[in-house]
Amino acid sequence: MNSLYEKISTRYPIHTIAHGDLLLTRVQYGEIVDVRFPSLKYNTHRRFCYVQFKSSGQARAATERDGEVIGKLKLVAKISDPGVKQDRQGAMHEGRELYVANLDWSATEDEVKQVFSKYGTVEKIRIPTNIAGKSKGIAFVVFSNRVVLHNIFYRSLH
Questions:
Q1: 146: domain CATH number?
Q2: I need a labelling partner for 24 at 20 to 30 A (CA). Which of 30, 40, 52, 127 fits?
Q3: DSSP H or E stretch at residue 29
Q4: How far apart are alpha carbons 154 and 147 in whole angstroms?
Q5: What rounded mean pLDDT belongs to the chain?
Q6: Is residue 58 part of a domain?
């Protein structure tokens, strides 16, 4: 990492990034040159930002905040290295997550779980909401294994 500017990847919800917390980071570790958020064009659930310091030494020093608890969330503060990518993981990448569209606006997580539990073990239901807290009319259903989704798809074809 020979570049003058290095970045810290901070993985906590964007809405919880407080200006004061970044100011504290600046005072403790050095001058923050830039803070940028990744594009949400393809993934609106990305919850991190890049904090760019004036020098690589300042960026390295700020990684001591890694593991710090802010509210109920655990901060991940690491040097960003685009050359080192982790394999994607999680229900979506494992083929266990079902996207449900045209969901009734008043549907609850329990109601969605009841409908899909007949196909297999449901681990989690998520119904995204808008800024006003109203359903967006979609849901994500996570099953215990991808065979369940395969069976649902197969049944829909026959």
A1: 3.30.70.330
A2: 40
A3: helix 19-29
A4: 10
A5: 75
A6: yes
Its domain, for residue 29, covers 7-79
Instruction: Using the CB atoms, write b or e for 18-36: b if 16+ within 10 Å.
Output: eeeeeeebbeebbebeebe
Answer yes or no: is 2 within a domain.
no
Question: Which is nearest to 37 in space by CA: 56, 52, 53?
Answer: 52
Q: What is the pLDDT of residues 17-62, one digit of tens each?
A: 444 455 455 557 777 777 777 776 666 666 677 778 888 888 888 8
30's tokens: 């050095």
In angstroms, the CA 12 to CA 16 distance is 7
Report which of 142, 145, 140, 146 is spatially closest to residue 122, judged by C-alpha positions.
142
Q: Which two tokens stand for residue 149?
A: 């989704």
The structural domain count of the chain equals: 2
**Does 109 lie in the same domain as 73?**
no
Structure tokens, 94: 């494992």
pTM (whole model) above 0.70: no
DSSP three-state, residue 25: helix
- Would you tell me how many other CB atoms lie within 10 Å of the CB of residue 43? 10
Shared domain for 75 and 11, answered yes or no, is yes
